[in-house]
Amino acid sequence: TYINTSFENNSIQISVTDKGTGIKPEKLNNILNFSGRSDLGTQNETGAGIGLMLCYDCLTYFGGKLGAKSINGRDTEFFFNIPVKITSNIVS
User: Fold this and answer.
1) What is the pLDDT of residues 4-50, one digit of tens each?
2) CB-side exposure of 14: number of CA atoms within 13 Å?
3) What whole-number distance in Å separates Cα of residue 38 and Cα of residue 46?
4) Which residues contact 73 (CB under 8 A, 6 or more apart)?
5) Domains: count for the chain
6) What is the 3-state secondary structure (H, E, C) of the chain?
7) Is the pTM of this model over 0.90?
8) Cα(77)–Cα(13) distance, rounded to whole angstroms?
9) CATH code at 56?
10) What range defines the domain where residue 67 resides?
11) Which residue among 6, 48, 59, 90 sits deepest, i.e. has the most Cβ atoms within 10 Å of its Cβ?
């Protein structure tokens, strides 16, 4: 698993990439529909996507965005941004 961070366009950008089984293109297009169904993971683990749904709701509340891209059979990258307001307060 790789975690990358950056700061661009007044947003904090964070991405998490794993080297698992990837996500099929048809599933990736519906990743945020939260149907409660998921395929088995690399070690046959199951999940309902609740963690992803909570992240999506929090990011949306604060004006952020969530996305994903994947190479089926290889890896998946989830990425999100959080807008930040830059203020300058200098105490002299």
Assistant:
1) 999 988 899 999 998 888 888 888 877 777 665 566 666 777 766 67
2) 11
3) 7
4) 21, 22
5) 1
6) CEEEEEEECCEEEEEEEECCCCCCHHHHCCCCCCCCCCCCCCCCCCCCCHHHHHHHHHHHHCCCEEEEEEECCCEEEEEEEEECCCCCCCCC
7) no
8) 13
9) 3.30.565.10
10) 2-83
11) 59
